[in-house]
Write a structure and sequence with these properties.
Its main location: membrane. It holds the Pfam family MFS_1. The chain is an all-alpha fold. The chain is built from 18 helices and no strands. α6 runs antiparallel to α7, α6 runs antiparallel to α11 and α10 packs antiparallel against α16. The N terminus is likely disordered.
Amino acid sequence: MSDNTAVGKQGMGELIRIRPYMQFMLSKVVSRFGDSIDSIAYSWMVYILTGSKVLMGTLLAVNFLPNILLGLFAGALVDRMSPKKVIVITNTGRGLLVGITALLFGLGQLEVWHLFVITILNSLLECFTTPAEVSSVPRLLPTSMLLSGNAMSSSATRVAELAGLAVAGALIATIGIAWTILIDAGLFALSALIMSRVGYPEVLTSANNEDKTSIEMNSHLSDKSSIFSEMAEAFHFLRKHALLLIVSILFAFVNFCLMPFNVLRTPYVIETLHAGAGGLSLLSGLMVGGMLLSGVWLTQRGANYRKSVLVISGIVMLGLSYAMTALPAYMTSFQLPVAAAFCLLMGMGIPLATTPLATYLMEVTPSEMLGRVYALQTMLVLSVAPLGSLVSGALADWLTMPVLFIVFGIMLAMSAGMLLFSKSFRSAL
């Protein structure tokens, strides 16, 4: 136990001395803090403006479309561009869009069609931001520090999200929704400013030393090849690594199962728990808090367990806790504390399932291909999200929310069995 602690402290000390990575992480933390505030305010604003579960599901479905349709193309472009410039430009653009939303809502001019247009544009920019962030990590850190870097970044962003969610309800109650959303716009601008100061090393470090020769050849040919051939390379790479493909299919199903909770969380807080914006902030905050606790535990003790055990345990914990969020609907008191406890457990299951797989992706993927490979995997994972959002909104008019949570939670937990029959999963992890 003491050895693990010493290793963890040593890794953190080494990371702190890498200034470009710390600046990059600070920029990411600032934007996540703003995002978490905005997630509560935006959800509350949409429900107030529409009052329709179907429309909320449709809006969430639209949010995923740019990533599904253009995510791979965006990832391939990111691999050709400076990740730093991509993040600065997209964060600036997202700040402007969020600011426009706040202005229109504050003036009483925001309409439903505005929400759809702004959501599409914001999601389109995010298609570029996320691959650029992912491809930045192996460029700023040596391969030996990827796991500790990912763990530290994950923990820091979780703290930022937790802080944002903790203050979101209070901000809405004191300064209103419009000003709360406007704060997020300012934080995006600050994030872009911090990112503009990050110095990327000139020599890139490959995430997979065995493929170094292949990477150099691909880099030499990339100027002559079309962007579509580079997109095809991502397909070939994913097909060659069966585990990445299996995981993509599995988490697409997990995403589908989580859609009822994502779409109906605000109505669940209002109608089932009889709580206000503070209740929504509490549930979301405890989910992030659970992710933080789990991430810290992974940093200290995760290396003692096989990645496969962590992933399966995380999926089962997430699914069963999700199903149990239905319990408060059948209680006459303490509904909010009980729901909060299960949201905490849901949050704890997420890093167990995702962190080992994210690290594996960075370990096996050359850094020069990481943007498009990550974008392709994300596209596959999100491919069923629009269907799940629409189904959730429609089913909410036929079935009660607790029944939906029970059915989809149990389905999610059972999906972990798929991994037990995968030889590549058991051998690689």
